[in-house]
Amino acid sequence: MLSYILRRLLQVIPVFFGATLLIYFLVFAMPGDPILALFGDRTPNPALVEALREQYHLNDPFIVQYWYYITGVLQGDLGNTFSGRPVSAVLADTLPVTGRLAIMAIGIEFTLAIIVGTISGLRKGKLFDNTALVIALVAIAIPIFVLCFIAQYFLAIQWGWFKPTVGAENDWGGLWLPAIVLGFSLFAVSMRLMRSSVIDTLNQDWVRTAYSKGLPRGRVIPVHVLRNSLIPVITNSATNFGVLLVGATVTEGIFNVPGVGNTLFQAVQRGEGPTVVSFVTVFVILYVLVNLLIDLLYGLLDPRIRYV
Amino acid sequence: MKRNKIALAGTALFAIGALALAGCASGGGNNDGGNAGGEADADAIITTNGSEPENPLIPTNTNEVGGGKILDEIFAGLIYYDAEGKPVNDMAEEITTEDPQHLTVKLKEGQTFTNGEEVTADNFIKAWNEGAKASNKHLSSYFFEDIEGFSYDEDSELTGLEQVDDYTFTIALNKPASDFALRLGYSAFYPLPDVAFEDMAAFGENPVGNGPYKLDGEGAWQHDVQIDLVRNDDYDGGRKAANGGLTINFYATQEAAYADLLGGEVDVIDVIPAASLPTFQDELGDRAVNQPAAVFQSYTIGQFLPHFSGEEGILRRQALSMAIDRDQITEKIFSGTRTPASDFTSPVIDGWSDSVPGSDVLKYDPEKAKDLWAQADEISPWEGTFQIAYNSDGGHQEWVDAVTNQIKNNLGIDASGAPYPTFAVIREEINNRSIQTAARSGWQADYPGLYNFLGPLYATGAGSNDGDYTNPEFDAAIEAGISNPDPAAQLEDFTKAQEILFNDLPAIPLWYSNVTGGYSENVDNVTFGWNSVPLYYEITKAAK
To answer: What distance in Å separates the CA atoms of residue B443 and residue B457, rounded to the nearest whole number?
Structure first.
C-alpha cells in the first residue's frame, strides 16, 4: 500500500509541470496589456510603461517568462503580485479560509446526503422520499449564484439570521451561510446516490442473512447497509470537489469571503500571471491529493479493495 | 488620475446574479430614512466600503481608488478639498503664487507624524523626489512632470524644489501652471516621514502618516479583508475626526457591499451595484445619495479615422452629437444616476457652466442632425457602419447599444457597438492607435480644476489625447488660461477653449457620472466630497 501511495504522489510531478505550463500559456495568451490597464483612461508615459514591463518580464517570450517563474517556484518563490506582495503570502492568507469553507460545505453535504438519502431509501415511494426528490431537483436546477442571492436576501437581510457577508469574520463560525449554500447545492446528487445505493444494498443476500440470523434493525442498517452504501457517495465526492472549487469562486464573490476563489477572480481580471498560475496550480494539486485520499478511503469501507 | 473601479471592474457575472436579487428586493426595503438621533459617540467606529489596495500604501505609487481612499485618511497634504472642492490649507500655513511658474509654501509649525516626527519642508521635498525618480517607477510620477528637473527617462533631482528654512520651501515649474497650487491636495503630494526611506516596502505595509486617522497598530491592514484606522488625536487641521475611527471593509463586488448596507452591517457605502440602481432610492429613502461627481463620460472619434477630419468631420461629429437623446438614456438606462453633459468638465468643478457658447450641439435635434449628416455626405459620401468600441467588462454595453440605436434611427446609417473583452485589451488598441472605430472614453479628475478636464485630453500631443486631436487655437486658449494667475481671466480662456471643442467635438460629451451611495440609520452628517468619497471625518454615530 505504501508503494501505491508513493506512486500516486509521484504522479503529482508531471501534473504540476503540465498544469503550470498550460495555465501560464493561457495567461500569456490573454489579450490586452495589463500594465496599460494599471493607468485607467490616462495614457502613461512610454518610458514608465517600458520600465514596468521590464520589471515583470512582460517583454520576454513566453518560454523565458515561464522559466523565470518555474525556477522561482523550485526555490520556493511563487513570484509577486503587481502590488509587490509575495504570492505565497497571499496563498497563506486565503487558503485556510477556503479550506474552512470547503470542509464545512462538505460536512453539510455529507450529513444531509447520508441522513436524507438513507431515510429516502428505506421509505422508497413514500411521502418523505417524494419530498426529498423535489428538494433535490430544486437544488440541482437552480444555479448557485441565484441560490446565493436568495439565501443572502432572505436569511441575512430580511430575517437577520446571518450577516450578509463574511469579511473579517472568516473563522468557523462566520462561514455558516456560504457553507450552507454550497453544501445544499452539492447535496442533491450525493443524496440520490445514497438513496439508490441503500435500496440496492437492502436487496443483497447478506442483509437478508443478517435479518434471518435475528439481528435487530438498529444493527443491520448502520453496520451492514450504511457502510456498504457509502462507496458510490464517496466516489462522487471526488468529482464534487472540483465542482466545489468552482462554486466557491462564485460564492466567495457574493458573500465577500476573502478566500482563494475571490483572489483568483481579481487576479485574472488584472492579468497577474504569477498569481493566477500559482493559485490554479494549487487547485490542481489539491484535486489530485483529494482523489488519492478518496481512493484510500475505499479500503476502509470495503476491505476487498486492494491497492496494487 | 485615480483609477475608478466602477469603470474597470468586470462584474458581469455578479451583475447577472444581482438581477435576481433586484427582483426580490423591490418588495422590501426601508423607507423611513431614519437618522441616528441621540447623542453622538465621539469614539464610535465608522465602517465603510473599500477595496484591497493594489499597491503598497505609498502616496506616489497609488493611483487607484482602493488605496487612495486610505491614503487620504491617514495623510494630510499641504491643502485638502472641502465638500465643494474648494482648497483649504492643511499642513500649509500659506501657499503664495508669485507668478504661474513660482510658488512659495510656508508650513504650520508643530505638526507631527504619528511617530512623533515633526513635519518639515524636507519631508515634502524628499517624498516628492522619491515619487518622481524614474527608476522607482511610481505610478503617479507624472504629477511632478511640471516641476523643474523632472525626467521620465533618467533619474534626476527635482531641482525646482528648494528648501528655504525648516518650514518654508519654494517650487519652480518648468512651464506655467497657474493651477499648480490647486493640485497640491492630491495624494501624490503628501509628505513622508524619515522612517519611510529606511525601508519603503515595509513602510508601505504599515504607513506612518500625519492625517486625521492612523493605522490601529501593526498589522491593522488585513490584506483582502479590511483595514482598521483610529483617530489621530495629534492631527490639528480642518479635518479633525468627529468619530473614533474608520474601518474600511474590502469588498470584491459592489453587490456584497450593498447587501451589507441593507443588512445594517456597514455604515456608509459610496457605490451602488448596477442591478440595484433602479431600486436603491426606494430602498434607502433619504439615506440614498445620488449627486453629480467629477467624472466626465464621452466617446472619442479619432481624427485619424476616415470621414472624420476637416470640414466633413466637423459636420459628422455635430450630427452624431445631436442624434443622441441624452435625457432619455440617462433616465431609462441609468435610472437617473447620470447627469446629461452640458460641457466638457463636471458640475462639481468651480467654473463649470451649462451655457458655454456652442453647447447647443448637445441638444437632441434629430432633424438638424440628419441635415448636417447630409451636408457631410455632399463632401464625401458615407459608407459602412459607425461603431463605438467599449470594454465588455465595465458595464458599458447597454448605453452603447442605446446610443448607436439612436444614431441608426436618426441618421439612417448602420451603427453598432464594438465590444472588446477587457479594459486591458481596449487600452492596448487605443494606445497603439490600431482602433478603427470611435471608442468610449471617460475622465475622472485628479483635482477640482477645469484645466484637468481639458489639457491632458485635448491639447496637441497631450498624454491622454486618445483621438490625436489638434487645434492651435485650442492650444493657445488653454495655454493662455494656465499662464494667467487671475481666476476671472483664466475662466474666460477656458470657456473659449471649450467653445472651440464644441465646434470640433474631438469627443462627444455624453453625461457626468453621479456618485451613488447610501448610509445606515446609525450615522449622521454624511456628505460626499467632490471626488465621490464621503467626508469620513465629519460622520457621527449615535451612542448605542
So the answer is: 9
Question: Which amino acid makes up residue A181?
Answer: V
pLDDT of the residue at B280: 95
Q: What sign has the CA pseudo-torsion B428, B433, B437, B443?
A: positive
Kind plus residue range of the DSSP H or E element containing B107 = strand B102-107
Q: What is the ipTM of this complex?
A: 0.86
Q: Determine how many CB atoms are found less than 10 A away from the CB of residue B527.
A: 14
- Measured in angstroms, the CA of A183 and the nearest CA of chain B are apart by 19
A224 CB-near residues (< 8 Å, 6+ apart) = A201, A206, A207, A210
**Residue whose cell numbers read 519631508:** B123
Distances (CA, A) of B491 to B64, B295, B486, B500: 29, 20, 9, 14
Strands B385-391 and B288-300: unpaired
- Longest pairwise C-alpha distance within chain B: 73
Which residues neighbour B17 within 8 Å (Cβ) at sequence distance 6 or greater? A145, A146, A148, A149, A250, A254, B255
A62-69's contacts with Cβ under 8 Å and 24+ in sequence apart are A62/A24, A62/A25, A62/A28, A65/A24, A65/A28, A65/A273, A66/A20, A66/A21, A66/A24, A66/A25, A66/A28, A69/A20, A69/A24, A69/A273, A69/A274, A69/A277
Contact B136, B68 (CB under 8 A): no
Q: How many A×B Cβ pairs under 8 Å?
A: 192
Query: Minimal Cα–Cα distance from A186 to chain B, Å?
Result: 19
| C-alpha to C-alpha distance for B496 and B500, rounded to whole angstroms | 6
B470-509: pLDDT as tens digits? 999 999 999 999 999 888 999 999 999 999 999 999 999 9
The mean pLDDT of B240-253, rounded to a whole number, is 94
| Mean pLDDT, chain A, integer | 87
Closest CA in chain A for residue B56: A83
Kindly give, in sequence order, each residue whose CB lies less than 8 Å from that of residue B43, ignoring residues fewer than 6 positions away.
B243, B244, B245
Mean pLDDT for the stretch of residues B324-332: 96
Spatial distance between the Cα atoms of A103 and B320, rounded to a whole number of angstroms: 57
Residues 6+ positions from A7 with CB-CB distance below 8 Å: none
d(CA B327, CA B511): 9
Contact yes or no for A168 and B225 at CB 8 A = yes
Name the band, by pLDDT with cuts 50, 70 and 90, for residue B2.
low
Going by C-beta distance under 8 Å and a sequence separation of 6 or more, which residues neighbour residue B227?
Answer: B50, B70, B215, B220, B221, B247, B248, B250
pLDDT at position B1, please?
58
> What is the C-alpha separation between B359 and A280, in angstroms, rounded?
53
